[in-house]
Amino acid sequence: MENFQYILPEIFISVSIMLFLLVGVFKKNSAGLIYNLSNISLVILLALIINLSSLDTIYLFNESYLIDNLSNYMKIILVGSGIFVMLTGSKYIQVINLNKIEYPILILSSILGMMIMISSNDLIVFYMGLELQSLALYVLASFNRDNLLSTESGLKYFVLSALSSGLLLYGCSLTYGFSESTNFDQILINSTEFNYGTTFGIVFILVGLAFKISAVPFHMWAPDVYQGSPTSVTLFFAILPKIAALSVFIKFLYTPFANMNDQWQTIIVFISIASMIFGAVAAIGQKNLKRLIAYSSISHMGYALAGLATVSNQGIQSSITYISIYLVMNLAFFSCLFMLKRNDKYYENIEDLSGLSKKHPILSFSLLIVLFSLAGIPPLAGFFAKFYVFLAVIEQSMYFLAIVGLLATVVAAFYYLRIIKIIYFDPEKEEYETSHNLGLKITLAISTIFILAYFIYPSGITEIVSKITMI
Amino acid sequence: MNFPILSSLILLPTIGALFILFTKSSSGKYQSSKYVALFISLANFLLSLYLWYVFDKNSVDFQFVENREWLSGFINYKVGIDGISILFVILTTFITPICIISVNATITNRLKDFLIAILIMETFMIGVFCSLDLVVFYLFFEAGLIPMFLIIGIWGGERRVYSAFKFFLYTLLGSVLMLVAIISIYWITGTTDVEKLYELGIKAEYQNLLWLAFFSSFAVKTPMWPVHTWLPDAHVEAPTVGSVLLAAILLKMAGYGFIRFSLGLFPIASENFTMLVYILSLIAIIYTSLVALMQEDMKKLIAYSSVAHMGFVTLGIFTMTQQGIEGGIFQMISHGLVSAALFLSVGVVYERHHTRLINKYGGLVSVMPRYAIVFMIFTLGALGLPGTTGFIGEFLILMGAFEKNILVAMIASLGVILGAAYMLWLFKRVVFGKINNQELKSMKDLKTYEIITLSALVIPILFFGFYPEPLMNSIEASVENTLNMYNFDLINNLASKD
Fold first, then answer.
1. Which of B7, B165, B183, B216 has the most A C-beta neighbours within 10 Å, making it the best mutation to test the interface with A?
2. B304 by DSSP, 3-state: which?
3. What are phi and psi of A67, to 5 degrees?
4. Which residue of B has its CA nearest to A415?
5. Phi first, then psi: what are they for B424, rounded to 5°?
6. Enclosing H/E stretch for B77
């Protein structure tokens, strides 16, 4: 029983979810209350996780649940970004009439699912967590049910995600069949010899995970779902599932399949290169900012995966650093998006940014910083993210991956520059509202300053991340 | 630890920019912010002069070195200067106040933003010349793209968007390969500290590829033929001040990089690729001079002449002789002054007559006699008349070239003649002749601030033209040191092969 103290965060959040459900059922018009309560519970959750994070590696429940440096760090950035996602979206969901009790509860359950995914050390526990987060996400995607695009995106996400879950499950069963265990460590021990069954298992599992992370060629859902979902949900989609999926990626590749890196390395390199190039090229023609950021996130996932392809601790750490910086950039970008509001209508086309810099200098400056950072131009944070990844990639002499990746950044720079051009060089349009809620402003300020001032003390994140070792 | 003079030199403009950001804009005129910017940049100039004064010219070591832990221990923030870089630092701090004084002529909207962009730019430019770590160098080198992109894009001419994109993407494409090379150097040698790399040396087997990666970046920035095409576009569309910064300082980053990194780190590869650089430089000198002859737009003509002049610079540097390298550096300083002056001169008439087409002008000597005089001095400086800085640079480069390869030197000498042709022809068409256009008659001669900026440029061009000793003094020891190291590495490598 003493083990329970280690999963206190998970227990706490499950109890809160049920409690909020009860409150929602018995108390009328309690949507706002639950929203705020959920946010507070996330803060408490974060505190609980940080409190636990000083501990060493701990195996729980017959070694099916693992708490270590990786899971702690990932949970911290997961819940931390969850708080900011809630903060930035609070006004948005009121304006477009989505402020229902289910919304924060679904977000919380999805976060719970992700936490289980991150900590899982067993195929079954992992799958349970994955499905919990996915189920919540299906509903969230189509949460704006009167909107055609939103329902379409929910359905699309559901169908494709179900397919990929099926593949993943098939991969899990193959792996189980050939390695005679569902426990990650046991699989590692049992799969010392090469056999086709496990290789197929790896391929199917990687396909399923690549879908969750929206890496090419399993990215097709991302643009539609990003565009169709309510913006606050898109922000959620852009950050949290990626953190969870990336950490599961790290887990799978470096625990059960660590002996078979010659099998999966090529796959990861291919997925990475394809995502970097496709994300960069396909974004050029986009008109909708949410769609554009979907392609941009595809290419960013390519860079994060490039770090994983290196089979080195340095590479894993660089990927984790990458996703940490990536989430801050996305937070900043979406905060800017939430500020494009006029008469209770949110604008999300690139053209709507035309000449923004004349009337809204601060907002435009933040966008400028974010976009240059997304493009990876020094001295902004985005550059360091890429720098660490390429440092790891070149250490393993994977020059082809490095050069293709860097050339893709040049292509990607083009569409980021195009947005900057529209903001700064084009004639101005109507003014947007300037009063925004405090949470949004704080998020934008913190994330922009983080991106801008990252170069002053760049070792901060790397020092924390350097504790995470898998090999 | 002494006072961190280089870091303050780098940071001061940024602090000034922050200060301007928070100054109140009085009824849209922003005069106060202009004075702040001017004050900051002049202070920076004086600081750099002081630096020159206390700088030990006989020492070959890097001086005023600051070394701080930066990227969790494995990459340090390291700055320092030697006899070569100090000149570029002073050039930067000298050109920036001139730019700021001439701002109100061309910039009508968003003056405050413009001043901030220029000051930030100054930070990055000084940073490039001071950095003694490859990653820090790359950081400054690339970061300069952001303000320049905005300067061209926001305050530029009609085709500014196209030019800004071209400038940004060309330069970025060249630079990413340099990043790969820098990271590779880190894994090969375990450090990116330039001083340590000089000592350690890089194995011969890696040098060729690394050299090419650096070359791809510097060649775009220099710019060398055939990747020079961004320069005329960027120059024509940029506002006058942007062109001045671009021509006077940004182009010099690459020439500086060639000396510091290509020669310093990869001597064997530099020796291997000498012929490639010669050929590209010669094409740049002859071909772009011919192109310049045919230009109808004044700015475009000067832009092409910049390519030709930078061709001389690369030629001089890769002769690997004392004269050639000193000439290359001198030519860069000279071109920095002269091209800045020429772009400002074009700005003067453009502001009055709103066209840059050469055939719309003629006979300016009768309405603007003072302008005609300064413009003549700059023209003569550009074509390398003895008594101007241009002469000394070209002369030394050709001396170096004759020592190494007579054919190359002879072809390059043709470039001097072509240079004289296009510059004198430009001068003749703009300044001499009859006034055909009645509007020209009403043109006013130079205003006070124009006299200040232009004469500030005339003085060094003539002074160092007659008396180059102070500049030569400063670079001599460092160039000698670079060459010694270079030859030492080469001989060592040959010895190890046998």
1. B183
2. helix
3. -115, 115
4. B165
5. -65, -35
6. strand B75-81
Interface probe for B, chosen from A459, A461, A465 (most Cβ of B below 10 Å), is: A459
Amino acid letter, A8: L
pLDDT digits (tens, 9 = 90+) for B305-331: 989 999 999 999 998 888 889 899 999
Cβ pairs bridging A and B (under 8 Å): 83
Q: Indicate yes or no: CB of B70 within 8 angstroms of CB of A403.
A: no
Instruction: Count CB-CB contacts under 10 A for residue A53.
Output: 17
B93 in Cβ contact with B44 (< 8 Å): yes
Closest chain A C-alpha to B187 CA, distance in angstroms: 6
| Segments of chain B scoring below 50 in pLDDT | 27
Phi first, then psi: give them for residue A183, nearest 5 degrees.
-80, 135
Residues in B touching A425 (Cβ below 8 Å): 153-154, 160-161, 164
- Mean of the per-residue pLDDT values of chain A: 89
- Name the residue in chain B with its Cα closest to that of A375: B172
- Which of B72, B164, B172 shows the shortest C-beta gap to A410? B172
Tell me the pTM.
Answer: 0.92
- CB of A421 within 8 Å of any CB in chain B? yes
CA distance B163 to chain A (A): 12
Q: Is A430 on the interface with B (CB under 8 A)?
A: no
**CB-nearest partner of A394 from B168, B172, B187:** B187
Contact yes or no for A421 and B161 at CB 8 A = yes
Q: What is the DSSP string of B7-40?
A: HHHHHHHHHHHHHHHTSPP-TT--HHHHHHHHHH
Please tell me the distance from the alpha carbon of residue B191 to that of residue B202, in angstroms, as a whole number.
11
CB contact under 8 A, B153 and A425: yes
Asked if the Cβ–Cβ distance from B145 to A377 is below 8 Å, we say yes
Which residues are within 8 A (CB) of A298 and not within 5 positions of it... i.e. 6 or more apart? A214, A215, A216, A219, A222, A275, A278, A279, A282
Task: Answer whether A455 touches B (CB < 8 Å).
Answer: yes
3-state SS track over chain A: CHHHHHHHHHHHHHHHHHHHHHHHHHCCCCHHHHHHHHHHHHHHHHHHHHHHCCCCCEEECCCCEEECHHHHHHHHHHHHHHHHHHHHHHHHHHHCCCCCCHHHHHHHHHHHHHHHHHHECEHHHHHHHHHHHHHHHHHHHCCCCCCHHHHHHHHHHHHHHHHHHHHHHHHHHHHHHHHCCCEHHHHHHHCCCCCHHHHHHHHHHHHHHHHHHCCCCCCCHHHHHHHHCCHHHHHHHHHHHHHHHHHHHHHHHHCCCHHHHHHHHHHHHHHHHHHHHHHHHHHHHCCEHHHHHHHHHHHHHHHHHHHHCCCCHHHHHHHHHHHHHHHHHHHHHHHHHHCCEECCEECCEHHHHCCHHHHCHHHHHHHHHHHHHHHCCCCCHHHHHHHHHHHHHHHCCCHHHHHHHHHHHHHHHHHHHHHHHHHHCCCCCCCCCCCCCHHHHHHHHHHHHHHHHHHHCCHHHHHHHCCCCCC
Nearest by CB: B169 against A390, A399, A410 = A410
Burial B210-226 (b: 16+ CB within 10 A, else e): bbbbbbbbbbbbbbbbe
How far is Cα of residue A57 from the mean position of the Cα atoms in its chain?
24
The four Cα atoms B485, B250, B399, B321 give a dihedral, to 10 degrees, of 10
A463 touches chain B (CB under 8 A): yes
Nearest to B172 among A394, A402, A413 (CB): A413
Average pLDDT over residues A135-154: 88
* Contact: A394, B149; criterion CB under 8 Å: no
- Given a contact cutoff of 8 angstroms between Cβ atoms, the answer to whether B240 and B102 are in contact is yes
The model's pLDDT over B252-283, given as tens digits with 9 standing for 90+, comes to 998 899 988 888 888 888 888 888 999 999 99
